Amino acid sequence: MTDGTGFGTADQCWLNSANGYTGGANDDKPGDNTADDGVVCSGDYVEYEMDLKFKGGVNNSVRLVPSAPEGFPLSYSSGKGSFCRSEGQLSAKGYNGGGCTFRAPDGYTNEVRQTLWYLADNYGGKPLRGQTMTFDLYTGNDADGWAKYSSVELEPVTVISMTYAEASVDTDDGYDLEWGKDAKTLEGTLNIHADPIRPKASQTAKGLSNRSIGWSGTLDLSAFPTGTYLKGAYGGKTFRPADGKLHLDSATDGTSFNIEIPTPKACGGRGAPRTAGRTPASRATAGSPTRCTWTSTRAPRPTRTAPRRLRSRTTAASSAPAKGMTTTPGRWVSSATTAMT
Fold this sequence. Notes:
By secondary structure, the protein is mostly beta strands. Helices cover 1% and strands 40% of the residues. The chain contains one helix and 24 strands. The longest helix has 4 residues, at 250-253.
C-alpha cells in the first residue's frame, strides 16, 4: 500500500512536518510525510495492490465484492486505473457498482496483480484514524450460484484534513440602487461567505476539508446612516447593531441578509438628490422619528468585495476587515467601509 502522492513536489500535501504536522497515524497531530506512513490527506490517493492466483482446475471464476462501513472516507477511483480489467486469457467484468468477476479458462495457471486506487475525503477537519474496508472473495458461477471463500481486509489508513478559509462580504448586485424622492428606506442584498482556500505555502488543495464552512464575527456598520439594520433574507429576523456593530453567526443567523438603509426622507428631510456626488446633505429635524447623519461622497462603481482570511478552524472566525458598502445620496454602492472583525 502507498498513501499519498506528489512527495517532494509542489503537489505534496501541506499537512506535513514542515508545517507542524509531525505526528504519526495514531498521534495527536498526524502528518502525511511519506508514501508509507499510514497517513493520507483529504483529496489525495491511497493505492492498494491485490494479487489473484489461479492454479489450474476447472471453473476458474472468482468474484471480489467490496464492503465498506458507513461514512468510510475513501472512495474507489477508476480515473487512476481500474482493477477490474482483463489481461491475457483472464476476463474481467464489473459487478454491482464496485465489485468485479474474473473468469479464466479451465487449466489456467497464473498470478495477476491488480491495483486499486481510492480517493480520500475528510469532511470535518479532524483525523479519521484506522479507516479500512474488506473485500469478500466468492467462487462459483452464475448458473450454480456463488459461495463465499474468504475475506481480505485492506491495510488501515488515517485520513487528515484542515479547515482553512477566508470570508467575504458581498452585495451580489451588479447595479447601483436608487430611491425616489419620497422613499424612506433603501434595501439591498448582503451575503457573507466563508470559502475553503489553500495556505500560501501550498500549491495544492490536498489536505483541505470540503465541508461547507461556518463563520462568526462582528460586522461593522458604523459608516452607514444611524438606523441601518439587517433583516434575514429568508426568515425575516431583524438584526439591529449596537454602537454600529453586529455580531453574527452563520449557524444561528444564516448567511444572506437584506440591509435596510434609511434615506434622508426617513430623517425628516425633504428628500434626496438622485445623482451621486452632488451637494452633501445632512438632514435631521427635531421630532423626526429617526435621527440620521448623511454625508454625500462620490463613490466608485460597484465592485465585488475582496475576501479576507479567517482563522483556521471548522467554524471560521473572521479576524480582518472585508470590503462592504458605502452610501451616496440617491445610490448605494460597493466600497470599503463594512468590516468583519
